[in-house]
Amino acid sequence: VRLLIAFAFPSRISDALLENGQFDVQLAKQQHEEYCTLLRSIGLDVIELPPDDQLPEGVFVESSAVICNGVALIGRSENAKRRREAESMAIILKKELDIPVVEIEDPHAQLDGGDVLFTGREFFIGISGFTNEEGARAVAMAFPEYPVTPIRVNGNKRLKYYVSMAGPDVLCVSNSPTCQEIVKRMEREASFTYQKLTLPEESATNMLYVNGTIVHRSPAEIPEAYKTLKEKIDIPSRNINISEFSQYSSGLTSSCLLLRRWKSIRSL
After folding, report:
1. Taking the CB of residue 230, how many other CB atoms lie within 10 A of it?
2. For the CA atoms of the chain, what is the radius of gyration?
3. Among 256, 228, 246, 197, which Cα is nearest to 48's?
4. What pLDDT does residue 267 have?
5. How much is the pTM?
6. In the predicted model, what is the mean pLDDT of residues 86-90?
């Protein structure tokens, strides 16, 4: 029986995100509302978390946890505000949603969910400015049923900015030198074989694959990649413009946590 993803947990945008730089907050909020509407339209129950002005990057909830097989591994950051985001998420997942939570005990570990790519068969963990080897070990300990492979990420982004899933056993990648370097490492170390969908624009590679549907960025943002997607993708797809609220994130995956149906989900 194939378990479908049933729930998405995005967090609303706080005006405090302006601390990261100037952008159009109202447009970002509008795009985020459209993002949540799109998730609902593909069959997900969307539970929106309230914004917290003390946590400007709180909208990018992906960083705060890794959820797999009904267990949540809580992220760990050197950044105090991002640490508080993870702590808040742990409380919500544990107390409000009855999801078993695993906290990282190693004080040296750093783990950002944006560096954790789960293919359905194994984990690749980006070793980046946000995640270290100790963080990768925490994933291996939390989910011992899957192979876990650390992958060096030389760019200044998280792993899933460069590589995401575009279908069952299909990696979405770009032509950029940084991405190609990462993909070569992944192919050398992988426990399984994957097909590749290669796009011309680096910012196009972060997409959501949910219950048989691909969600990617709009033609206005990724004109060349959009053409490639239309030519090569033969499964249902949707697109959305996230130009404004994605400026400080990896893209579409950054703003929600996805969860398969769990026995005791309660409404917030």
Report:
1. 11
2. 17
3. 256
4. 44
5. 0.92
6. 92
Name the 3-class secondary structure at 186: helix
Residue in this structure with the two tokens 């990282």, named with its chain if needed: 104
Helix (H, G, I), strand (E, B) or coil at 197: strand
Residue 101's DSSP bridge partners are: 72
Q: Residue holding tokens 């040296």?
A: 108
Helix (H) or strand (E) holding 152: strand 148-152
For the stretch 250-260, what's the b/e string if a residue is b when 16 or more beta carbons lie within 10 angstroms of its beta carbon?
A: bbbbbbbbbbe
Distance in angstroms (rounded) separating the CA atoms of residues 247 and 79: 19
Match 């400026």 to its residue by tokens. 247
Cβ burial, residue 239 (10 Å; 0-12/13-18/19+): buried
Angle 162-165-169 (CA atoms, 0-180°, nearest 5)? 125
Q: What count of other Cβ atoms lies within 10 Å of the Cβ of residue 233?
A: 16
pLDDT in tens, 194-240: 999 999 999 999 999 999 999 999 999 999 999 999 999 999 999 99
Q: Give the pLDDT of residue 1.
A: 33
